[in-house]
TrEMBL record:
UniProt GO cellular component terms: cytoplasm
CDD domains: RPI_A (cd01398)
This protein's name: ribose-5-phosphate isomerase
Catalytic activity: aldehydo-D-ribose 5-phosphate = D-ribulose 5-phosphate
Pathway field: Carbohydrate degradation; pentose phosphate pathway; D-ribose 5-phosphate from D-ribulose 5-phosphate (non-oxidative stage): step 1/1
Species this chain originates from: Capitella teleta (Polychaete worm)
Enzyme class per UniProt: isomerase
GO biological process, one term: D-ribose metabolic process
EC assignment: 5.3.1.6
Listed Gene3D superfamilies: 3.30.70.260, 3.40.50.1360
UniProtKB keywords: Isomerase
Highest taxon above the source species: Eukaryota
Family to which this protein belongs: Belongs to the ribose 5-phosphate isomerase family.
Length: 242
């Protein structure tokens, strides 16, 4: 296993051991880090007989839950979750996150908002003092397909930077999300001090925006794994490592 995956795995194992308990309804995030968490959840279900219901945040998460023989739930039957676990592309000192690098964000945010606790897991490359320090691909923004040009223009006029339509790698044309929408990646000036709570609210008010990859004041704890397998955790209140 390479160094980055070792960090992801260490963070995933730690969060599952620390926070997952029997009889919980769990939100399962998307991306590469969550794969290690689902593997470990499945191991604990087998070895300890934990009774869990797992609510997915994407097509990928749904497949993961099914492949590992876990119990699949949805928000219609389980609108309140005990815990949601998800990866992130970047986490700042207050645990504000950029998400959506893998094309999933809107369902992730809804599921996280329904959980009593939202925990973030990542390798330690994602740990930043401010957003944009280590993540240079911009803020993902999900938009209705027919509105992508006016939304890009409004973002550029209001905030500057470069918004771009995300193009697919193994398909001609744009990335299409699990919700049938397009994604913009807004590269912003990372030197500037941004009020991300305000920016997130304003972006969400642009007609045609479905949601943004800014997860502001949502996470209660972040777990960062290193290539050596150690894990540091951080809460917004503590603002320091344990
Ligand atoms: O779109 C994808 C999700 O927001 C992921 O949780 C995020 O991109 C982090 O992914 P990974 O665990 O692969 O770094």
């Amino acid at each position: 296993m390479d160094a980055v995956n070792a960090g992801k795995k260490a963070a995933a194992i730690r969060v599952v051991d620390e926070l997952v308990k029997t009889d919980q309804v769990l939100g399962i995030g998307s991306g590469s880090t969550i794969v290690f968490a689902v593997e470990h959840i499945a191991e604990r279900v087998k070895s300890e007989g934990l009774k869990l219901t797992c609510v997915p945040t994407s097509f990928q998460a749904r497949q993961l839950i099914l492949e590992h023989g876990l119990t699949l739930g949805d928000l219609e039957n389980f609108p309140k979750l005990d815990l949601a676990i998800d990866g992130a592309d970047e986490v700042d000192s207050e645990l504000n996150c950029i998400k959506g690098g893998g094309g999933c964000l809107a369902q992730e945010k809804v599921v996280a908002s329904c959980a009593k606790k939202f925990a973030v897991i990542a390798d330690d490359r994602k740990d930043s003092s401010h957003l944009g320090q280590n993540w240079h691909k911009g803020i993902p923004i999900e938009v209705l397909p027919f509105a992508y040009v006016p939304v890009m223009q409004k973002i550029k006029t209001t905030y500057g930077g470069v918004p771009a339509l995300r193009m697919a790698q193994s398909k001609a044309g744009p990335v299409v999300t699990d919700n049938g929408n397009f994604l913009l990646d807004w590269k912003f000036d990372a030197e500037k001090k941004w009020d991300w709570n305000l920016i997130n609210t304003e972006l969400n008010l642009i007609p045609g925006v479905v949601d943004t990859g800014l997860f502001i004041h949502m996470a209660f704890k972040a777990y960062f794994g290193t290539s050596q397998g150690s894990v540091s955790t951080r809460t917004p209140a503590s603002n320091g490592f344990h």
